[in-house]
Structure formats: C-alpha cells, structure tokens
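[scheduler] slot 2 assigned
[scheduler] job type: sequence-to-structure, two independent chains
[scheduler] chain ordering preserved from manifest
[runner] begin chain α
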Amino acid sequence: MGRTPPGQTREKIFRFMEKRLISGQPPTMREVQDAFGFKAVQTVAEHLKALVAEGRLLHEKAKARGFRLPDGFGPSGPPVLVPVLGRVQAGALDLAVEELEGYIPIQSRSMSQSVSQNGADEFFGLRVRGESMLGAGILPDDVVVARRQPSADPGDIVVALVGEEATVKRFKLRRGRVELHPENAAFRPIVPDPRDLSILGKVIEVRRFLEGLFS
C-alpha cells in the first residue's frame, strides 16, 4: 500500500481537530499522534504548523491544548472553549472542587465579543450535584456556565463560595444581608456570615447532556 499524500493526511488531521474542538475536547499533539499512528510527535507538529499557516487553525503558544478554530467559525462567531472545573453543590453545601474535567464549547455572539475584550478565562463551567435548583431548571449533572464576577444583583443565580464550600443558589438581599435561596421547597435558604461569603460568578447558561460529557 502506498503512502497517503501529505495533503490528504493533513485534511484528515484538520477534520479530527475540528471535531474535537467543536465538541469541547481539544486534543494534545500526543493524542493526535496516537489517533493517526505517527511514529514521531514531530510529524503532528509539522501538520498542525501547516494548518496554522493556512489559516485553518489558530494556536495560542502559551497554553496547553492551545489550538482553536479561527474567528468567524459558525453562525454566531467562533466557539468559546469553557473549562469545566469539577462539581458544585445545588443542595447542602459541599467542598468546592476545582479539578479540570474538560472543556465545553459555548457559541454565542455576545460571549465571543466578551472573550475578545476580557479573555476566555472570564467564563467557567461547573457540574451540578443536588436538587435544590430544580425550580430554575437546573438538574443534577447539568453543567452551569458562569461569568466570573465578584458581585451580583438580587435575583441573579450565582456560584457562591461560603467558607471553602461552593453552591449554586439565587442571590437575594434581605434587610441588607445576603441570602442564598434554593428553587426547591425541600431546601432552606442559606444566610452566610458576610465574612465567609464570596461570589465567584453569575450563572448565564445551563447545559444538559444525555450521554457522558467527557466519556
């Protein structure tokens, strides 16, 4: 069997990268090497460098898994890859975990504009545990996408840190004190000591997956 022409191989690599980036799972060069059976990772580097030179991929050299699709990809601008940082409790408080599970693509014009101004680190995702926010349509194992901000307006759904424990709740003010309210009558509001409370971000989107997100 003859060798596949470099152009055909490169096209297959681009399609592989495109699929992984759209799914929110940017691959490492080692993963590309394993997928195509190359003997050396340098072969992958050369193909990816060529795709960048052709304008089909962009590469942020300071970042691991730093490849992305060019601006203008898709009808609402380029997908924004948001890191999913472990789990957050929507119920009783639980210890906050910031262990990277992977990435999910968020594609909206407003987010793309915000990223261009402030950087992709402005957003983060957390997988939800518990049932305290059922009334807001947030179910166990959903992923909430939040914009990092240290404050909130009454009525906002927020990711809040109380001591070392994180939770998703609706932000309310009563007599000048912050209360974190569930959207489920089976749960009680949390009235934290102001010294223990930090707002990590405002929830702006909820993602639901019928199959494992990173399986």
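[runner] end chain α
[runner] begin chain β
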Amino acid sequence: MPGYGDPQARLLVLGLAPAAHGGNRTGRVFTGDRSGDFLFAAMHRVGLANRPESVSRDDGLVLHGCWVTAAVKCAPPANRPTPEERDSCAPFLAEEVALLPLRAVLALGAFAWDAALRAFGQPRPKPRFAHGAEVDLGRVTLVGSYHVSQQNTFTGRLTPDMLDAVLRRARELAER
C-alpha cells in the first residue's frame, strides 16, 4: 500500500503497517480506524491536515507539507510483521522516500523507528527509540513517538498533548 500526502513533503510520518480494519479495508494507511482518528486529529490541530479525520480514500483529506506511509505495505497477521515482511517491503519504502524532499521523519513506534534507521542509514551505536528522541541522520532528523495505537492512547501512554508536541517539533525540523 503506497503512502499519500503532499508530493513536496519535507516531513514523513511513518507507521508500522496498514491495520486490517482500517488501511487494509480503505486502501489508505491510518484511514478508517481509531489510530488514524487520533493521528489526523493531531495533524489537523498542528496545521498538517485540512480536516481532523480520514474515513476513506476520497474523503477530501489534504496533507500540508507531509507524507504518511507505513514500513510494511500490507496488513500483517496479528499486526506483527515478520522480519521477512519487513525486509520485503524495505525497498518500497526506500523508493518512496527517495522521491520526497524530506528533512524530518516522525516514526510512530519502535518498529517504524528501526525501519527509518535502515532506510536512511543507521548510525553506530544504534540510537534507542523513545518518545521525543531525536537523531540526526544527515538528510533527515528522525523523531520518535509512541505509536497511535489504542493500546497507547486508551491507557494514556500517548496523550493528545504529547502527540501534538512531537508533531510540532517534527514540523519545525522539516521546515529548517
């Protein structure tokens, strides 16, 4: 499943994979599920999206200065991609990001963090994922965020204020 957004995006929002009942059903990652509801509401609040929700591919959502995609391009069983799925999708992610004038990447979760490190060149020692962590990868600055999954948002591990702050920081880095 390809990503979508502004073809002149300087900010990449990178997730894990299309959700079985969201992106896999609608054909657009983070569209039509609760994770997407949480993400797009925040993107709207910080000026990266023209509307606070995405329910279908033709719902009128327009992203400003950002591109949304996933490290794995199909819905994995039990939402847990295998190393083979990750590795099979890596060239598609690399090709996708090569076409964009990116300056910052917001990785939603440790899986996306690791995929971004592989896509942009992993420094040694390997930078550890944390919410709000930042790593200069040369072409881009990688920013970490807890994933927008219900597991994180329903428990308060990731709050709207936390996501807004990390989105604002990633946008600031992208606009440099």
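[runner] end chain β
[qc] chain β: The chain has six helices and six strands.
[scheduler] slot 2 released
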